[in-house]
């Protein structure tokens, strides 16, 4: 029914205005018009898909415009919150922000491609926001990563971020102690920091920001002034960066 109505509207746009006012038509005229529409669609079914494509394109354009407004309204919290890890080139001419959940399959798929993008480009400022939404293991992973960042600094965070995204075991104290040992970290202060108020506050602030940006899944990227919701392959990200640079 939806496609029928869209196709009808498309046909209607090509008719004289007087012929389109269904309210002024007699019952007989209205029936003739409906039969003509049906016959036209049966003879030209591709019109339906053309109308659907136009609708989808308009909806996508509207989403991009709405997302750009959301990014502009929340720019300080997105790009300069004072706590999120910043990697790549901190002075780069292009800023890319990723909302990540370590247990998210698409985040894991995107991880190496984002890494390659940033390293190969050399002029991208990458910001990572911990956004655990997939349960207890996600929450524990994010808390541990933030604890590492707050305790040991940015370089240690980069290592644990890379390790957690690849970790296939459940997240518990034993697993985190083993991971700490592998990375050469002292586990005790990190485990203690996980429940610190500063860690809780960071996660809460990121969740509030995600709500304002209408982000419900991961990965979600902010690419300079607009959002990319979901996974995209490396070549797509490269094209976006190139287009944004003009």
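Sequence proposed for the structure above (246 residues):
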């Amino acid at each position: 029914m939806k496609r029928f109505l869209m196709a009808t509207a498309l046909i209607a746009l090509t008719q004289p205005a007087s012929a389109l006012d269904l309210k002024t038509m007699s019952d007989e005229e209205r029936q003739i018009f409906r039969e003509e529409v049906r016959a036209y669609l049966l003879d030209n079914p591709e019109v339906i898909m053309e109308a659907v494509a136009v609708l989808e394109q308009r909806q996508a354009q509207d989403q991009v415009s709405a997302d750009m407004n959301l990014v502009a309204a929340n720019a300080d919290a997105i790009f300069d919150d004072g706590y999120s890890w910043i990697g790549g080139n901190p002075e780069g001419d292009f800023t890319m922000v990723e909302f990540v959940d370590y247990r998210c399959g698409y985040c894991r798929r995107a991880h190496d491609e984002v890494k390659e993008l940033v390293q190969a480009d050399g002029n991208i400022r990458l910001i990572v926001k911990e956004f655990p939404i997939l349960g207890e293991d996600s929450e524990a992973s994010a808390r541990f990563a933030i604890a590492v960042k707050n305790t040991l600094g940015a370089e240690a965070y980069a290592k644990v971020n890379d390790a957690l995204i690849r970790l296939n075991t459940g997240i518990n104290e034993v697993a985190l102690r083993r991971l700490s040992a592998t990375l050469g970290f002292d586990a005790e202060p990190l485990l203690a920091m996980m429940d610190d108020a500063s860690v809780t506050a960071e996660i809460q602030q990121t969740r509030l920001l995600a709500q304002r940006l209408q982000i419900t899944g991961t990965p979600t990227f902010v690419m300079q002034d607009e959002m990319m919701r979901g996974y995209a392959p490396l070549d797509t990200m490269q094209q976006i960066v190139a287009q944004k640079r003009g």
